[in-house]
Amino acid sequence: MSKTRKRDISIHSNPEFTGLELTSPGQYAAGTPAIKVAFEHIYKEMGIVRGLRTLSHMNQKGGFDCPGCAWPDPEKRSNLGEYCENGAKALAEEATTKKVDRDFFSKYSVEELSRWSDYEIGRSGRLMEPMVLRPNSIHYEPISWAEAFSLIAEQLHSLQHPDEAIFYTSGRSSNEAAFLYGLFARAFGTNNMPDCSNMCHESSGVGLSETLGIGKGSVTLEDFNKAEVVMVIGQNPGTNHPRMLSALEKCKSNGGTVISVNPLEEAGLIRFKNPQEVNGLLGSGVALTDIHLQVKINQDIVLLKLIQKRLAALDQQGQQVFDHEFIKTYTHGYDAFIKNLGNDSEAALLNACGVPSHLIDEVVNILAKSSKIIICWAMGLTQHKNGVDNIKECVNLLLLKGSLGKTGAGTCPVRGHSNVQGDRTVGIMHYVSKNYNQAVKDTFNFDPPTKSGYDVVHAIQAMHNKDAKVFIGLGGNFVSAASDTEFTAEALQRCELTVQISTKLNRSHLITGQTALILPTLGRSEIDMKGNSRRHLTVENSMGVVHQTKGMLPPASSHLKSEPEIVSGIAHAYFQGNHPVDWLSLGSNYDLVREKLGQVVQGFKDVNTKSKDGGYYLPNNVRCLDFSRLPNQRAQFSITQAPKHKLDEGEYLLMTIRSHDQFNTTIYGLDDRYRGIHNERRVILMNPKDMDQAGFAQRDVVNIMSHYNGVERKVYGFIVVAYNIPQGNLAAYFPETNALIPIDQFADKSHTPISKSIKVSLELRS
Ligand SMILES: Nc1nc2c(c(=O)[nH]1)N[C@H]1C(S)=C(S)[C@@H](COP(=O)(O)OP(=O)(O)OC[C@H]3O[C@@H](n4cnc5c(=O)[nH]c(N)nc54)[C@H](O)[C@@H]3O)O[C@H]1N2
Ligand SMILES: Nc1nc2c(c(=O)[nH]1)N[C@H]1C(S)=C(S)[C@@H](COP(=O)(O)OP(=O)(O)OC[C@H]3O[C@@H](n4cnc5c(=O)[nH]c(N)nc54)[C@H](O)[C@@H]3O)O[C@H]1N2
Ligand code: SF4
Ligand SMILES: [Mo]
Hints:
- The chain is an alpha/beta fold and 766 residues long.
- It contains 31 helices and 33 strands.
- The radius of gyration is 25 Å and the shape is globular.
- Bound molecules: ligand MGD (2 copies), iron/sulfur cluster (SF4) and molybdenum atom.
């Protein structure tokens, strides 16, 4: 065999500056600027007529599900459109008329493309036909679907053990595709099913499962209308779940209180101008947050302990603050929990969390009087070493108040990708569920593997050690999304084969194994035809509603296949008919997939009919206060540890966050409008006092370093911007900063990388 030439690939987005402009941070979200920006994206990528017609079907019954976030749709959809600025951007991104075809790949080598910025790579357009990058080559070339499938099958057959293959999933997939994909991984013989959830809400899944017996939230959208208090902790809905602002607006107009807990004062939580209402467009909109607690990074446990300590003091004074009836009937561990609250001193907690005492008192007074409390959270809680404990502390508060299993109250982990929750429900998991395996065996007549598989960080380590040699990605951008960019890139480059099932070009198509395949697939918004009929798929939103999604645009290319077709094509090429599952029938007949899904997963019986119109709620034990699967058949109080971050002089905690102009690794544009940052992504937000102490001036350019286990990791060239952020804390955007997070720094139990509390130092760029 000839020796492989090592490709000269750049693993980072081009670091050239793009021209920072600064304005004051915004004081409201949405309103006319949001409409303007939404339409600019639609116009530029899709053309205005095609774009507007498509938008009018997005999130409507009988239409297609927004490819953006997982926020649910209201039962009664608005005639003015049921989408937000970022939904429009997500659609424009997917349904762009720009094309990445075979001429594009013969013109640009992977070496050259890797020097483009992520923004430029994303702008190039939709993938058109299957492409292969052969060993020793630096150009992708066309390959037929049949050849691509047999290449994968051959490579899978050549492995010594099924655990040498990795099957990654990103949360854009459908229930049907994810179910088939998981089924194939199991039939092949491995549970190596890392998914984007591992980097995202895995801490929520673990924390909620251990305390409440289900890894999902318990609230419905209607609960927001009835809630007395909504706490939004570690979440930036104005950017990442914009239609959640309408739910908060409803809560407010019904007399509810909104409390935000965040190191940043995010514009979207200050004020909302609802584009669906006249007052939102012409007036001043509505104020959303009543009390903002500017907590220091990763001091939420401390803050929550303090709040609960003060509530307990009121309760002990005889005020009816806690729901003792609820606690007695449904929970376990209350006494130990209360005793433990006594261990921490008020002063130490107050000092650590950085929130003024009087604001905490205000919150305590409101919570004391309320019982319908919703806690919403996202990455600000999950992406820390103690991410699981963060969630458990939120559950503690809800248990004390009896705020579960009743209208207007409950847990609300706000999920990221539009179907990330559904993927897990239908079987994308690296751990083993005995019930699931048994149901697969009963339905399909084969034995799924019983050994746990790799999650994201362990999959990377396995590829790096050459314990795994084939990587298949059902969507996503693994190399840019994961931590420790250089290590992850090396891991993928050590693979024999990497396969990406994708809609758009991204860095994971450029940082590849020896051989790489791009398998282009239909997007949500596109028509999926079989014979004369238009097929539909199903998805599950953040509140457990399963509903249909049906595309309406002609596909970007006639060579695209749907995700279920691709998965079943691979499976058929691998098994060649020697397997009890009829893969090709499943890949072409989604009704059949749904029928089988109904036999394997609880709640999916009759999904075909029930998912029509607005869909239906999956079963949820918390809503009916059934804790029978937990120890003592009760919801569990937890005793958590306050995180300790020992920072030496010149060290800070860095959170890596999203700008308003990105969807994870997809960069829509260079503005973060609500934070007043324009035309630049390479910025680092810093407290002015910290800048003074360190001797940095506005717009100084610094490198950021992390030091873990004696290894220095560095990212270069970030512009310092003075910002209202607690002292000792910094913020910058990902994926540019992922190279700072060591592969072995992740949350206990959930293994989610510590993307929101990275210990770093800064140096002036010489
Ligand atoms: N437009 C758009 N929408 C998206 C996405 C996107 O990239 N763009 N991504 C989707 C996905 S996959 C996800 S998971 C979600 C993510 O949604 P979010 O979790 O809202 O996203 P992040 O930008 O990571 O923001 C985290 C928020 O937590 C705060 N924070 C950081 N550290 C802490 C902390 O220690 N404590 C507290 N209390 N707060 C903290 C930050 O200041 C920020 O406001 O959004 C989804 N929707
Ligand atoms: N430092 C840091 N790192 C993080 C985070 C953070 O906050 N900080 N957040 C983490 C989180 S919450 C998440 S969820 C992960 C995201 O990790 P991923 O899910 O892996 O990344 P995305 O950027 O969402 O993937 C985008 C790609 O998906 C493909 N795609 C889009 N739509 C479709 C489709 O319909 N089908 C298919 N097959 N492909 C499609 C396109 O090719 C696009 O380039 O990143 C994580 N990484
Ligand atoms: S809130 Fe999320 S799902 Fe709804 S339109 Fe906006 S991006 Fe799409
Ligand atoms: Mo996510």
